[in-house]
Amino acid sequence: MRREYKDATAGSVCFLCIQHGTQRAGCLLGPPWSTTSTSTVSSRRTLTTPLFAVLLQPILLVSALHTLSVLNVLASEAIVISTLFASIAIYRAGPWHPLAHVPGPFAARISKYWSFKLLLSGEKHRVLKELHDKYGDVVRTGPNEVSMVHADAIREVFGTGGFQKGPFYEPWSDPTLPTKALLNLRGDAHANRRRIWNRGMNSEGLKGFEQVLAKRLVIMLSQFDKMVKEGNGKATVDLAAWFSYLTFDFMGDLAFGGGFDMLRDGGDKNGLWAIIKQGAKATAIIAQTPWVVPTFNMIPGANFIMDRLRRFAMESASARVKAGTGESKDLWYHLMDEDNHEKVKPPLHDVLVDGVLVIVAGSDTSSVALSYFIYQMMCHPELYARAQAEVDSVYPDAESALDSGRHDELKFLTACIQESLRLFPPVPTGGPRKIPAGDAKIIAGKLIPAETQIYVPAYVIHRSPKNFSPGPDNYDPERWLRSSSDKETLNHAAFMSFSYGAANCAAKHLAWRELLMATSALLKRYNMKFVAPESKTGKDWESTMKDFFVTETGGLMIELTTR
Ligand code: HEM
Q: Which of 45, 213, 256, 420 could be disulfide-bonded to 316 (CB atoms 3.0-4.6 Å)?
């Protein structure tokens, strides 16, 4: 069905035009993609042609050399395929492969199936930690892939002179659109789009977003107050779920000027959250073997999760264009360059894909960070009391707890959040960068061949005694406040929860404000404790955290009482 709507100031937009690169009379899109888009869809390595060749070759051989029969063709297929796979496996596992000198599990050397299965399990962060503990700073995690955890690798891989994103990121773009999301842009195209993002995230932009967040926080607190009242002074709340409602609603405000009301509804009534979560998880899994994607997309109906996500994006963007800019400027306003800074206006489809990215990148990350902080406070009552006392002293009355102007005074709370982000970075292992074709490179003192994909997993780096000691696995917020001593290691350069370099988190400062505002408002208003301390919703909650590029968690059941 063709979707159309009227913009407040101009003609109408047709989303079929966006998808098919056509331009109807009156469509807002402006000139064709190639002249205005900051990116184009690259040609991708696909499975289709090799698959076709492998299947056709034995048929041709049999028909040329033997009698063409089903049995002969099947036998020939079996010989060709097993010889092909065996020779690939022998090459990858053998001493001829350029990564032969890098240790790692045998299965990882010969096929991507190992990392595919690992991602599916959600245990990637924990398994990588075990492997690095066993093998050292560099581990081979795929036929042409390594994981590196020397702190120098952060700067050398992500920083100036580092490497571009690998094919892992390709599936994060909608193949039906003639553009890519910021997360999947490289080089100049990335720098151009990121410039617009950075303008949106400047101090004036942040101030506006903060007011939007404050409104959402007030809704969440009033829902909690209601539950406490109904529960005769206490309420049992799944804080992990409520933080997701909060961050999802807030990201909806930012990306599409609102329209999501999970806080108001107390849940995912429209199934939107589920769509986003399933879409992000499916993408992360398929991103392990991106060359399968174009072939996979040809199977009718196979891509139903991404189709739902796409429909959701179209509808949200449609509603935003229809509504126009509200009282406060959202990120859409900045990304669409509604205040006319750019010589050439960004095309609508760039903003559409980045709108979805805002929701995927900004909701689970922040909600996991909030949940993990609360979890640590519940596990460490003495630290909780100290953080609460600091909030009380900085914000003597409850209303002021949403004032970000005093965040600098929240030294201990900031250290507690930073320590949470260290022990459990919401993007625990991230995506890889790729060394270009040509020469091998020396990274953190190791020679890594051309065309290798490199992971630099924050979860492992943050728990290395070389970077944080003593007690790298302990929750010790004080480590960020103590003055340096010979007995301690605190490597600030190894803290990479927001990644590093030109493609680090585009909303790092916003995320910090969000974390400080939400935690101080909660600590100020409630006393909290685990409902069932000795369970998976209590002290064992950490074991429910799964790494699907972004993090998935189980419920975190907390008893709230008003202070
Ligand atoms: C505690 C909260 C957050 C954490 C820990 C976090 C972490 C990260 C990390 C590690 C990356 C790099 C990913 C990669 O290279 O594969 C990233 C990128 C990104 N983040 Fe965040 N993020 C947070 C919140 C947010 C929020 C609230 C937004 C949206 C408003 C956001 C938007 C983005 C975008 C757009 C990128 C891609 C940047 C680029 O490629 O240039 N993030 N984030």
A: 256
